[in-house]
Design brief:
With 211 residues, the protein is α+β, with helices and mostly antiparallel strands. The protein is built from ten helices and five strands, in the order H-H-H-H-H-H-H-H-E-E-E-H-E-E-H. The longest helix is centred in the N-terminal third of the chain and has 16 residues.
Length: 211
């Protein structure tokens, strides 16, 4: 499975805003965006002074931001876009719903991981099951009615024991149902646009791939 393995704080600095890729660290003074407000690299300071952006650059930045937030590389992201195009409705919304329906994202949204990369790691290590069957594929697309649960044996690990005992997790969106006591959750429906990250501009992504 291909994935980005470089420094993720540089991705936030390149976008010029927090993408919350490192969980709790993003809320502390250690956050790289707080300490360095310019883009990474040799020409980062120079580039930060440029105020004019072309349409292509805005479209590219919109696509790159979505890829980085959800931890998806170009080939897979392009496939998601073509799938979104083939479905009825708005292509941009369809794309965001596909990204939100990934197993790693749902584990993160349910509050069982600090970040999407952490959720992906937990899934890859086989800690979760979907509809009663072990699933270690983070890119699995879930549908309304699907149930995600920490496997019985995995509930005895220190991480999940502490998570269950504290009973404190991230409040899930309304399209998901959470059961902290059983470390499970259910997909009730697909998310509406207002329930998805408002910093994303799906229209820029559609324009980029429609060139």
């Amino acid at each position: 499975m291909a994935r980005y393995t470089g420094p993720v704080c540089k991705l936030c600095r390149r976008e010029g805003e927090k993408l919350f890729l490192k969980g709790e660290r993003c809320f502390t003074p250690k956050c790289a965006v707080e300490r360095r407000t310019y883009a990474p690299g040799e020409h980062g300071r120079i580039g930060s002074r440029q105020s004019r952006e072309s349409d292509y650059l805005r479209q590219l930045r919109g696509k790159q931001k979505a890829k980085r937030i959800y931890g998806v590389l170009e080939r897979q992201f392009r496939r998601y876009f073509h799938n979104a195009q083939s479905k009825p409705g708005l292509t941009g919304l369809n794309l965001l719903q596909i990204l939100e329906s990934r197993l790693d994202n749902i584990v993160y949204r349910l509050g069982y991981a600090d970040s999407r990369s952490h959720a992906r790691q937990l899934v890859n290590h086989g800690y979760f099951e979907v509809n009663g069957r072990k699933n270690d594929i983070a890119s699995t697309i879930l549908r309304p009615g699907d149930v995600v649960e920490v496997r019985e044996g995995s509930k005895q690990t220190t991480y999940f024991k502490l998570l269950r005992q504290s009973g404190e997790t991230r409040t899930p969106p309304t399209w998901l149902e959470q059961d902290v006591n059983n470390l499970s959750g259910r997909v009730l429906r697909l998310p509406e646009r207002a329930e998805i990250d408002g910093n994303l501009n799906e229209q820029l992504i559609v324009e980029y791939y429609s060139r």
